[in-house]
Amino acid sequence: MQVHCYTVGPMANNVYIIIEDSGPRCILMDPGLGAEELIPVLQQKGLSVEIVLNTHAHLDHVACNAIYADVYGCPVALHPADLDLLHLLPEQAAWFGLSTPRMVEPSVWLEDDMCMELGSDAVRILHTPGHSPGHVCVAGNDWVIVGDLVFAGGIGRTDLPGGDYRRLMESIQQRLLVLPDATKLYPGHGPATTVGYERRTNPFLTGGNSIWS
Predict the structure, then answer these.
(1) Could you give the angle at the alpha carbon of 116 between the alpha carbons of 39 and 49, nearest 5°?
(2) Backbone phi, psi, residue 92, to 5°
(3) What is the three-class DSSP state of 123?
(4) Which region, left, alpha or beta, applies to residue 90 given φ > 0 means left and ψ of -120 to 50 means alpha?
(5) Can you list the pairs that 10-17 forms with residues at least 24 positions away whose Cβ atoms lie under 8 Å?
(6) What's the mean pLDDT in 67-75?
(7) Which of 85, 80, 100, 116 is nearest to 33 (CA)?
(8) Bridge partners, residue 19, by sequence
(9) Which carries the bigger pLDDT value, residue 213 or residue 51?
(10) What is the pLDDT of residues 79-109, one digit of tens each?
(11) φ and ψ at 46, to 5 degrees?
């Protein structure tokens, strides 16, 4: 299973394409603002999007859901705890002075520890609330796509509707920091990092900002 990252749009969102090893099928992760520019990339590579999977329902991670659902006839997956947030897309767009993107209702509901098959392999869903109530991470064998839960040297915001600092820190501690140090972390913005590097250097996990210090 291969993970490819493309940074797009005005908020420099990382869109991830998870590709099966033995065929053309892929999972598209978080097609937010500007992600429509990846359609030619997918077509050039001969890839077929099997499902659009959202780590959470903030505008910059879901703005192009409907475009991909139309082009590929594929379902959209979201954790049900973020459905109310998805329905606030008009308000979210207004916060940034943007037009409201067309919304598509999810038809696949993500659950904690749910496995999603892709060819002969599978990814596992980790419910990691805090940045939003239904935020999830997507775990492979030695990597995790972490959305806006944690970043290289930082953590996700909790000052937006549905944010909860304590739950976010618990999600990081209980779902990510228990993984091997070499596990690669792919965030929704910024560069990739590893569990071990963040454990040692992230000031929110090592210093006075941490509830675990």
Answers:
(1) 15
(2) -60, -45
(3) strand
(4) alpha
(5) 10/34, 11/60, 11/189, 12/189, 12/190, 13/60, 13/61, 13/188, 13/189, 14/186, 14/187, 14/188, 14/189, 14/190, 16/145, 16/186, 17/42, 17/47
(6) 97
(7) 100
(8) 2, 26
(9) 51
(10) 999 999 999 999 999 988 889 999 999 999 9
(11) 70, 30
- What pLDDT does 213 receive? 31
Length of the chain equals 213
Tokens of 26: 């892929």
SS3 assignment for 12-50:
CEEEEEEECCCCCEEEEECCCCCHHHHHHHHHHCCCEEE
The tens digit of pLDDT for each residue in 147-198 reads: 999 999 999 999 988 899 999 999 999 999 999 999 999 999 999 999 999 9
Q: Read off the pTM.
A: 0.94
Q: Is the pLDDT of residue 211 over 50?
A: no
**What tokens appear for 12 in the block?**
């420099």
C-alpha 175/C-alpha 171 separation (Å) is: 6
Judged by DSSP in three states, 190 sits in coil
> How far apart, in whole angstroms, are the C-alpha atoms of residue 187 and residue 52?
17
